[in-house]
Give the backbone structure.
Amino acid sequence: PSLCRLKVGKELFTAAGPQLVEKLISKDFGVFLDLKFHDIPTPVQKACEAASRLGVWMLNVHASGGTAMMQAAREGVAKSGRQPLLIAVTVLTSMNQSALKEIGVEDELQNQVLRLASLTRQAGLDGVVCSAQEAQLLKKQLGEDFCLVTPGIRPKTASLDDQSRVVTPSQAVAWGADYLVIGRPITQAADPLQALQAIHQELQNL
């Protein structure tokens, strides 16, 4: 708990359920519940309320669900009586320009990220999930207090896996990322604790 928080995504949550989240919280871990809610407003509101009641540190929704859905998510969090960070996903880090075109988005990727992040800010959420490559632009356009959570982080020695827009931990922080999401370079390392400590050391050397 002193070195990191834990992300619980769809696969783990489907297999182990809310009980695992509660167990991790009982061991003093902050939990980022990464379920990316995306539905009509009422189910999203109720899902965010239920997730918040678990005591998670952070949860997320898809910004492409629109303003009404994101506002409903915010209302669900408020109803819970808890105060987790509520953030939205802009463009998945596995997507590039051609992937956007496949789903009918003709605008440049960076413009789409900024559009969705601006909607998120207007809806009253705390921040967005975005590639670190967009961090400088978003901080400049939306303010230093707008929280940026960046996946696709890979230490220099790690493989890209299925991420197409990746940067190193030190690059991400330098560009304005507030929180780094680092998965396989730690979880699949021969010594996960040593891998985590090495990343901490890299960041301390900034």
Observations:
- Residues 10-26 form the longest helix (17 residues).
